[in-house]
Write a structure and sequence with these properties.
130 residues, six-stranded mixed β-sheet, single chain, globular, 2 helices, disordered C terminus
């Protein structure tokens, strides 16, 4: 199992003087529309880690990006840049702790025909955040 974060981990890390150093989102195509998975880079780890629910029962996804940005800023103190990648984007290959639903070849890639295994093509001016 890959490393991950839960909200309690973040609150503990922040209380101990840590901070969130970076963030990116992955847009997943779900049956009811887009959902956004957040990956955070805390100061106490060198990798971007996925946010999971309590006891890691599920991925912590958001349908409302505004609410997610408010959580990151107000609760976690992170107001820096945030890149949004479509699930399956080749640019995600450089991140070590990706969940299977977000990796290259994901069937949750926006813009793909239903059931397609081919990842979405990256836009020409995709942000190259790393």
């Amino acid at each position: 199992m890959s490393k991950e974060l839960q909200e309690a981990d973040i609150r503990t890390g922040l209380a101990e003087g840590g901070r969130i150093r970076g963030a990116f989102l992955v847009a997943r195509l779900e049956p009811h529309g887009l959902e956004f998975m957040v990956y955070l880079r805390p100061s106490w780890d060198k990798n971007f880690l996925p946010l999971r629910t309590w006891r890691s029962k599920a991925d912590r996804t958001y349908r409302d990006v505004g609410r997610l940005l408010q959580l990151l800023g107000d609760d976690y103190g992170y107001w820096g840049p945030i890149c949004i990648y479509p699930a399956g984007s080749p640019e995600l290959a450089r991140f070590k702790e990706l969940l299977p639903d977000d990796a290259v070849g994901s069937t949750k890639a926006p813009g793909q025909p239903k059931g397609s295994q081919k990842p979405a093509e990256a836009g020409e001016d995709a942000d190259q955040q790393g």
